[in-house]
Design brief:
By secondary structure, the protein is mostly helical. The protein is about 75% helix and about 5% strand. It has a two-stranded antiparallel ribbon with strand order 1-2.
């Protein structure tokens, strides 16, 4: 009991410290962004904003996170935590340079692999998966020599997945905060103090930046923030999920990070199917589709927050109550979410869709009338 109380105190202090530092540092970083020219200018249809907005907000998130970690996590002699933080520094430096001057995709990819190799070669590894084949006698897939490549693949994939969903004000930041909160809850239940405090710092740093990032955004976190959040979520999921929940380790991280994983996988499949490079930017991500359906930015972001929260709650229940309860909860929450969506924004969306349909029908009628007139004109000419 004393340990639990002490852990709660540390978690709260880490969260509040990161929140305050991140919030206070954002105006300072904003001024710096203007000085170095890290400004996001809307130059294509993928961008939702209409005026130039400073990037580099991720630097404030990083500073808030690091201050909290250095105060509340003992990293002396802890090679795994040191390697994670060193990799995070590499990711942030890469992000800052990329936000100031756009870097080639290949160069960024190579540096991300290097950053992922740092923790992967210092004990932060995915050693085994639970076997998804329930009919098999082997409960686990032991990776062996594939451990490091799979770990690097996981870290780089999640790092870029979070970056890819960073397309609406507050979306990537909020989804990352929800995912980190889920990991925090699971770590608290498992009495994993270090993972819990690190996740608390990440939640606090994300929430501290949120007032500047929600629609209409005053500042973007840029690649600096999106890749940093993805990197920490990926590495800490290895520490707190793949290790301590081996029996369900194949499912839980994928539930918690389900939204960015699905969006990235869907984007890659879609681009390859159209004969494009998987890294080719387009306007068909989940958030773009919600906007095209008639939702405004706030509604689209709220919808994706709800989906992320449903996945997170399902992961928590899965770690405590088993598969059946998690599936029942997931189904129930999905039904509630659908009903809530119909209640919250039915009129606006339906009206817009009705107007669009009406316009299309009118266009078809006019086209039909014109096509009916043409034969008569021909007959008159022939006569």
């Amino acid at each position: 009991m004393p340990f639990e109380n002490q852990l709660i105190v540390y978690v709260l202090l880490a969260l509040l410290t990161a929140l305050v530092i991140s919030f206070l540092m954002t105006p300072v970083v904003k001024t710096f962004a203007y000085k170095v020219g890290a400004i996001d200018v809307p130059k294509d249809e993928r961008r939702m904003h209409k005026v130039p907005i400073p990037r580099l907000g991720g630097l404030a998130i990083f500073i808030g996170f690091m201050v909290s970690i250095l105060l509340f996590v003992d990293i002396r002699g802890n090679q795994q935590m040191q390697s994670i933080l060193l990799g995070a520094v590499v990711i942030v430096v890469l992000g800052v340079v990329d936000d100031i001057m756009a870097l080639p995709a290949l160069l960024k990819f190579v540096v991300q692999i290097v950053a992922a190799l740092i923790p992967a070669t210092h004990g932060v590894r995915i050693l085994a998966f639970s076997n998804p084949n329930i009919f098999s006698d082997n409960l686990y897939w032991v990776l062996g020599s594939l451990s490091i490549p799979v770990t690097v693949l996981w870290i780089v994939a999640i790092t870029n997945s979070v970056n890819l969903i960073d397309g609406l004000d507050g979306l990537a930041n909020g989804v990352s905060a929800i995912s980190a909160t889920t990991m925090l809850v699971i770590a608290m239940m498992a009495s994993e103090a270090q993972v819990a405090v690190v996740m608390a710092a990440l939640v606090g740093a994300s929430v501290g930046f949120m007032p500047y990032n929600l629609n209409p955004a005053k500042m973007f976190m840029g690649d600096t923030g999106a890749t940093f959040l993805g990197y920490i979520l990926a590495t800490m999921s290895i520490q707190g999920l793949f290790k301590y929940y081996a029996v369900i380790s194949f499912v839980v991280p994928f539930l918690i990070l389900g939204l960015p994983i699905f969006d990235t996988a869907f984007a890659f499949i879609r681009r390859i199917a159209h004969g494009q490079s998987p890294m080719h930017a387009d306007r068909s991500h989940i958030h773009h589709r919600l906007i095209d359906m008639g939702l405004n930015q706030k509604q689209a972001v709220a919808t994706l927050y709800v989906i992320s929260a449903i996945l997170g709650l399902s992961a928590v229940v899965l770690t405590t109550g088993g598969e059946q309860k998690a599936m029942l909860l997931f189904a129930a929450l999905c039904i509630v979410a659908v009903v809530a969506a119909r209640v919250v924004f039915p009129k606006e969306v339906k009206e817009e869709l009705r107007e669009e349909l009406h316009e299309e029908l009118e266009g078809l009628r006019e086209h039909g009338h014109h096509s009916e007139d043409k034969p008569d004109e021909k007959k008159e000419e022939e006569s």
